[in-house]
Structures
1.
Amino acid sequence: MLHPVMFRSLWQYRGFVWGSVLREFNGKYRESLFGAFWAVAGPLTMIVIYTVVFAQLMRPTLPGHESTRFAFSIYLCAGVIAWGLFAEMLGRMNSVFLEHGNLIKKANFPRICLPTIVVFSALINFGILLGIYLFFLTIIGHWPGWPILSILPLLVLQLLFTIGLGVALGTLNVFFRDVGQITGVVLQFWFWLTPIVYTLQALPVSARGFMRFNPLLPLIGAWQTVFLDRSWPDFTSLLPLAVLTLLMLWLGAWLFLGRVGELVDEL
Amino acid sequence: MGYLKVRNVGKAYKRYPSKWARLAEWITGREWHEKHWVLRDISFEVAPGEAVGFIGVNGAGKSTLLKIITGTTQPTTGSVDAGGRIAALLELGMGFHPDFTGRQNAYMGGQIRGLSTEQISELMPQIEAFAEISDYIDQPMRTYSSGMQVRLAFSVATALRPDILIVDEALSVGDAYFQHKSFNRIHEFSEQGTTLLIVSHDRSAIQNLCDRAILLERGFVIKDGYPEEVMDFYNAIIAEKENATVEVRRLEDGRAQTTSGTGEATVADIAILDESGQRVEFVDVGQVVTLHIEVITHAFIERLVLGYGIKDRLGQVIYGTNTHLKEQALLNVPAGTRYVFDIVFPANLGPGSYSIQTALCSTDTHLVNNYEWRDLALVFNVLNINKSHFAGCAWIDPEIKISTI
């Protein structure tokens, strides 16, 4: 992944990458009447349902926010939006080479363009949701203030982690199609094993210790801290994830660069 | 620019005995697969501006070779060194997205070839004009007929003149009008110095466009030479059956004569005779001549058909028929018989060099029983001695009536 030639060819093909991102965005909704509304309809539905179902149950477990209106919704949205970006990117990178097999077989272009398109495409959906969320926070008077700047490093860390893992899985999936199936199942479990629709405090103490092994927990927690507590997150808690990210980037680069030539033979 | 060097290229696909074998290989690092070679030790060089046709039966490795040259597939051994921009039309379409409009797909097709959006916008009117699909350009691709897809694919791929153009049978899909149009464009490119690599089963396409042909068979290059010569050899291979042999003999003028067949019957003598029965090499336009062919049988043959064709300098058949079509097939022929066929016809041909190919078989085609197939069995020349000058390869002398109204 840290290959200068790859970045140069990516830059050369920026027209293709950006064009594909736009086409995908337009194409997804061009036949529908409400257009881009559907891009956010899914996550919004999820937020509404979870708010209705869990808000009453969870309120007591958000200490310090008993008087904050919509406290649970703010907490929930922060987690759902961050997780949504992770899950969408990972899920699509998983199948990105398989899906575009036809293109890979017929045209000679840098293959790294395909995951890159996924990254930007997912970021657009994420941007729309985040925009709506920030608008909502402003209206209810819960604008996070300066700590909002911390979402930039959080986002960079999350992207690098997802790219490393996603490219590795996407490459593996071409050779072992089970990988795609496993990823879907694991993502489901992972979502419910991460405090997004519930809080860490709601868990028994014994279970909380077990949660330490979830590398995404501090990241999602940081998002929630920024938006609910309106304070700077504890960046040192992200150190294990940062180390893991480096490992994933190396793994992704090793698998991808080593197998990219063989990819087309398996499609 | 436009040169191509293919050195010792081989391609093997990995075959695993079971699904788990690959996993075992990845984990242990030991080789568990067997290699299935589709191309072996292919080496050739193409000079800038040269036009090369690739021929061979299905599965001979033509498409794989072109994919390796294009760069979409990696060779297992050897290397390819290509100079300049390559445009490739591999099979139908080019990874078009069915839900996107023709215009969007055209943009994508250009971008995937490394063009910038501004460049494509500049080329777009020309692409639209060449494809001639009118307002379909803004309709989703899934509403296109396959011919329309080819039109668009070809227009996009050739919007800019490439240094090397690779065409893999894509042209056979369009209608006659568009085929002509695309052939013209390929011709123009070729004249401007584009190197052409073409896969086709269409003899005339190869002979019209190419100045060289490469014949692939089971992953090997088995012949590399003039298109006519290679095509003859290819036809012979198609006809090859059981104990049939293919023999190539150099003629005095350097052309190769290809003979193939199982040998139950052979042409013993062949000549063109004038009215007085003298052997001639030069024939006047319109002169009545006799094609004299002597055939010897070496085994009992149930049904024997003699076919012949008159080919022009480029190897295109000007006229051909056989005794099956003329309902003069010989039945139950014993071994050791010598037959004489005297075929009388007026040489209504334009001036130039012509050759005769002969075929001895049992039916209409030489694909069922091929006793002997002989290309360039005889070469003769047509001269215009006493007719007024005319153009073309056929003498169709008219009577021109002119009047005023």
2.
Amino acid sequence: MTALCLALWGIVLLGSSLSGRLDLLLRGVFHPLVGFSGVVLLVLAGAQLKDAWGQGRRPGAPRGWWLGAAVALLVLAIPPNPSFSDLATNRPAELGQEEALNFVLPPAQRSLTDWVRLLRSQPDPSLYEGDPVRISGFVWPQKGDQPQLARLLVRCCLADATPVGLPVRWPPGQVPKADRWLAVRGTMAVEEHDGQKRSVVVAERIAAIPRPRRPLEP
Amino acid sequence: MPLCPLGAGDLGLAGDDGYNCRSCLAWLATAWAIFQGLLVEALPFLLIGVAIASLARWLAPGGRWMQKLPRHPVLGPLTGAALGFALPACECGNVPVARRLLAGGAPLGTALGFLFAAPVLNPIVLASTWVAFPNQAWLLAARPGGALLLSLLLASVLRLLPETALLDPALLEERRLNQPLAEVGLLERRTGLVGPATPKALPDKTPRPPLQEVLQHGSREFLDLAVLLVLGCAIAATVQTLLPRSWLLAVGGAPTLSVLSLMLLAVVVSVCSSVDAFLALGFAAQITPGALFAFLVLGPVVDLKLLGLLRVLLRPKAIALTSAAAAVAVLVLGQWINLLLL
């Protein structure tokens, strides 16, 4: 039972690493550690199996281990499929300040996160009026406003995901549903919101896209 | 990528069931994903902790060196805290090592000092705090200083309890076996000293156990702790999904409320101490300095993910006492920092 439980946890970690599931759960810097831990657990399981086989022992397992094994099987069977808009709505939109801004990138090459960082550092909307925009993200509903296009930033794991979003002026009658992943082309414009000027993406062409392989950004 | 003009049918338009409705399925899916994120991130650190504890068991069998650690009420916890530099892991990895220290007969204060201070006083956590807040010199001093102070306080408070009321019974039994007879009564030891069999005297030098036995012991310890980690992650994921984080940050500007809310956030989020500074960076501008300090000092000592793991060390009442004492101390320290810096 010791070998079986260790092997199950090893498969969970190594399988998550190889299947790309970690891209949805953890920041990239932790991926090698998770994969390596999975290998260590599998080797340990092999050693335990050999040991038990050689001695003909079949020691009983504490009840808790069965619970652990059941959870490991569930984790293997049910992949994570979080609602990004749900996660984003539950957390305040903020942005760390340690990331360098990509000032050198031309407007059409800036990602959604680049745009948000730029707008935070140089918040004068008139500077960007008319700039071409090509971004992708998920639809993040806003109370009392049109949905934004957003991304999740992650420092460690999904538990600390923090949203960043850009206001989008959707064409009349074409407001998309929450959680849809969209690629949007348009231009940056200025609009009044709550008595203040802000930058808004005027969507000209929109396409539904599948969720990216690495949907979380550092 | 070719982009279709607006009106393509697969965009999915918001209808009556729009975004104000959080469906139960979406809630469950999000909680399940957060659970997996927490678990998959914590398991490697748990493995590192168990590996270090097993290595100590193999290299220093009998744990005689642990019994020689200082017993002084202040020097002991300080030595335990300094041991953190040998274990660059978060709070999950520290639990098996602290258990090994306690089981090996290390002085209580030293082991508790290690348990509570080492998650902050280690090179990785100090470096990540410095990288996240390079311009806040006060925090670079206040975080390790606060962690040290908190560990001293918690060790002092918990030492007031008799070991039987403090330590988990299984751990206590293992600890009694490794404590000198001068410190433990015969009946307390429960090793058959009172009974028909003649006990063998403990050898002066314990032989090194076979590697196979050490691996077996480490494997069982990992599996025991993994179950408790699963429970902690399940609680943390559920509470996180139910409790909007924006509620906790809404009171960011109020000195006392901000400290309290960030303490609650640290307990709920249960993020690893080696990266919590980067998370704090995201909302540092919204909150008071005392609240930031509270988040970074309380989280490594008490959080929902850790509560299950602490059960292998402490009795439930001792865990409750630890949580309450840590909360009061961090609240007072956070308030004091607000008084100084605001």
